[in-house]
Amino acid sequence: MGLADLPLVIGHRGAAGLAPENTLPGFRLAYELGVSAVELDVHLAADHLVVIHDDTLERTTDGRGKIASLDLQTLRSLDAGGESPIPLLEEVLAELPQGVGVNIELKGPNTAVPAAKFLTAFPELDLLVSSFDHRELAYFHHLNHEVRVAPLFNRWRRDAWQIVEDLDAWSINLSLKIVNQVIIEEAEKHGIKVLIYTVNDLSVARQVLTQGATGVFTDYPNEVTRAALTD
Ligand code: G3P
Ligand code: MG
């Protein structure tokens, strides 16, 4: 298990197709299903790194408004699904089983500094930090050289390989919509891994791995499993 064992099956927002996304029960379910790692999204709110995808509360909680406007007490009182609160990053890391990796996606602004600082306390964890915000990610990398980083792309960019090189990235994390053989071969030349999101169909997962991808993010780690992919 962990980020060293290929192919990688990464539970997207925990196991978002099976349990409320980005909640502790969702992460626990992903661990039980044998994922290599879990992926989660972080924002900065009430001086804490909180695990939630959107910058607003409506879609995944019973709250309203912007996550950044909340005080800690209000934030903690919200239901993020199944009567679970929005977790703090530290809570997820505290109960991460040994051998399971974690991909922290810097989703919100101003997350690089607190994440870089906070993660120095966890040198033993198998971590990957990613972001669509390549400047925020570069800032994180500048502050913390120990933790592996990965730029995310949902649209291809001509300067993508420059971004990869500048970041000394461990992997390039791509939307399924844009992945192709040329990109995968170029990633191999750069000596980096290719992780594809979000792959909920086992046959599609098999296909991208055959093309040379390193791993997939899935909402259904009960169907897209390492056992099924290594059969
Ligand atoms: O990191 C892969 C994936 O989580 C990126 O997209 O919108 O689900 O955070 P999103
Ligand atoms: Mg994400």
What does this structure look like?
The protein has nine helices and nine strands. By secondary structure, the chain is of the alpha/beta class. The chain has one domain (8-230): TIM Barrel, CATH 3.20.20. An eight-stranded parallel β-barrel has the order 1-2-4-5-6-7-8-9, surrounded by six helices. The mean pLDDT is 97. The structure holds SN-glycerol-3-phosphate (G3P) and magnesium ion (MG). SN-glycerol-3-phosphate binds at residues 12, 39, 41, 53, 105, 130, 152, 173, 197, 217.
Under the CATH scheme, which architecture would be assigned?
A: Alpha-Beta Barrel
pLDDT averaged residue by residue: 97
- How would you characterize the largest beta sheet? 8 strands, parallel, barrel
Low-confidence stretches: none
Q: Please tell me the total number of domains.
A: 1
* Tally of separate helices: 9
Order of helices and strands: EHEEHHEHEHEHEHEHEH
State the total count of DSSP E strands. 9
Instruction: Using the alpha-carbon principal axes, give the shape.
Output: globular
Ends distance? 16 Å
Spatial order of the strands forming the largest sheet: 1-2-4-5-6-7-8-9
Ligand types: SN-glycerol-3-phosphate, magnesium ion
Helix content: 25-40%
Query: C-alpha Rg, in Å?
Result: 17 Å
Sheet-strand content, in percent, reads 15-25%
Oligomeric status: single chain
Features:
21% strand, globular, binds SN-glycerol-3-phosphate, 231 residues, alpha/beta, eight-stranded parallel beta barrel, single chain, binds magnesium ion, TIM Barrel
